[in-house]
Structure formats: structure tokens, C-alpha cells
Write the C-alpha cells for this entry.
Amino acid sequence: MITITLVQGDITAQHADAIVNAANSSLLGGGGVDGAIHRKGGPAILDACRDLRASRYGRGLPVGQAVATTAGNLDATWVIHTVGPVWSRTEDRSAELASCYRESLRVADELGARSVVFPAISTGIFGWPMDDGARIALRTVRDAGSASRVAEARFVLFGADAYGVFEEALAELGH
Ligand code: AR6
């Protein structure tokens, strides 16, 4: 059984065992959550990402997958990088978005993390509508979380609007 909580704020200010990063396939940084995590976490995270590019992920991290590094100076032990799909009007990429949450939880479970914080993956620069993104996020974490040892999944939403959308989606889920 996993407990899902919602917080409004900046994900880089959170304390948890693992912080999930909404990365891109290059693993070498970007804007949004990714930029904030690298800025606040410091160069150790980028060093670890470069090592991953030089070894397991020479072609980058595929969409829907997840991989962990140190959390550098963040108040966490690990950052779990995952690559969300870019929103498409013509193609349903929901399975890839769900996979980001499932794979991040799987990696967290492997590491022994008990608390994991998530951003609303793909709902910023990648353009996914917040309400649909929230439904996919919450349903997937609830379902995958029941089989994991992760005790808390905390969604950190940037701003009151995103928080409100998640609150409504969580209520719809009967949580
Ligand atoms: N804390 C919590 N949430 C945040 C923060 C923060 N500090 N900053 C933004 N958000 P995004 P994506 C919200 O763009 O859509 C990067 O360049 C934001 O309002 O971070 O998956 C990567 O390198 C939105 O609701 O991620 C990729 O190229 C949500 O977090 C690309 O952006 C996700 O927005 C990934 O795009």
C-alpha cells in the first residue's frame, strides 16, 4: 500500500529518499524541473549523467525509462531521471507517460527508497494537458505502488492551478 500526497512548491526544496527528474533523453540537462535539479543539486549529478551516457546509455535514455544517480546537494539520496513523451494531438502516448511513473517506482524500489517525490512529468515544456497528466500519474502510481515497498509517493506541483487539478484527480480516484 502506497500513500499518495500532494504538495505545492518547488521539487528541489523537498526532502525525500528519491527525487524524480523530468529529464530528456540526453540526460545532460535542460529547463524546467531538470534545470532546477541540476542548478541546486550541483555538478555531481551531471557527472553521473555523463558517466551513464558513456556506458549504459550511449544513445541516451529512451522515453518511458528511468535511471538513478546521486542527488548531489539536494536533500535526498537519489535523483531518478525519467524521460516523458512530448504531447501529441495525433498519437496517444499515454502508455509512455504511465511507463515513466512505473519505471521510476521500480528503480526506487530496487534502491530501497521509501519516499519518492514526483513532478507532473511532461506537463511543462513537453506540453501534456495537466488534467490528463494528473489522471495518468495518480492512477499509475496507485496501481504500481501497491506492489512496491515505497511507502510515500509525493507529487510536488508548481503553482496553485496544478495543485488544484491534482487534488481533483486524486478525489476522482477515491483517494
Ligand atoms: N518544481 C516542481 N515543479 C516544477 C518545477 C519545480 N522547480 N519547475 C517546473 N515545474 P518540465 P517536461 C513543473 O518542463 O514537461 C526540460 O528541458 C512544470 O510547471 O520541467 O517533462 C527537460 O530537459 C510542469 O507542470 O518537464 C526536457 O527537455 C512540470 O513541472 C523537458 O524540459 C513538468 O515541466 C521535459 O519537459
In short: The CA atoms of residues 8 and 157 lie 5 Å apart.
